[in-house]
Design a protein that fits this description.
Layout lengths: L4 H15 L2 H8 L3 H27 L9 H8 L3 H18 L1 H5 L2 H26 L8 H27 L7
Amino acid sequence: MNSNPLMQALLGEFSKWLAATSLSHTIQTISWIIPTLQTIHILCVAVVFSAAVLVDFRMFRLFEREVPLCAITRRFLPAIWPVLLVLLLTGSLLIIGEPRRSLINPTFYIKMALLLAAVLLTATLQRSIATSPGFWEKDRGRRLASKALATLSIAIWCGVLFAGRWIAYTQAG
């Protein structure tokens, strides 16, 4: 993502060093490790995406209309945080196994920026509902704002999915 030649050179050298470590070599040479990590990573993405989108659908009143939004967020959003830790672990191991695939790939940094935005938006929504359960449903203006946030959330989470998949097609160097 960074067009700075010095940064590109540093990331390139770091990628070479990381690829030469014993952990990277193990991940690269044992045939079942990368597919297993990718499978776990994808399943965790599905859990996180599903939890976030179910809350977003409730904000649109497309899901569980009769259930208060705060009950839906309490049911689905807490699942996101431990699963994000598994994503961090599996993603880190995938990077260690194939550092050039990510570390010098602009799409990887787009994915990370979108993921950060999605996590911050989700955490902010969860916190706002925990501190004021009926906030997003009090009046028409807030309901419209919640729908706008739900739209943004879905767009950002879809962007994370797209960028994550697109990494394989935008390999640099």
